[in-house]
Design goal:
The protein is mainly alpha-helical and 81 residues long. It has four helices and no strands.
Length: 81
């Protein structure tokens, strides 16, 4: 299985998208997105000042998914509380 693209995710039913958002919001990779990116479990959450510019973080990977969800469902933050 490969990783689901943002475009593919946005074609999923709203309930699945909400579930994905909840997991990503807790730094967990959702099984609904397919295979986790390589090194996900060891990946830092954020880039720290001492890190090289080419370090990939969980925030780098999550951002496009979360941004797309927030753009389509502005009220998402209310659904996860």
């Amino acid at each position: 299985m490969s990783t689901v693209t943002v475009k593919e995710m946005m074609a999923m039913p709203k309930e699945k998208i909400v579930s994905i958002y909840k997991e990503l919001n807790q730094w967990k990779w959702s099984d609904l997105l397919g295979d986790a990116p390589e090194g996900w479990d060891e990946m830092p959450k954020y880039k720290k000042p001492h890190m090289s510019e080419d370090v990939i973080t969980k925030a780098d990977i999550i951002r496009p998914y979360a941004s797309a969800i927030k753009m389509k469902y502005h009220e998402i933050s209310f659904w996860i509380d």
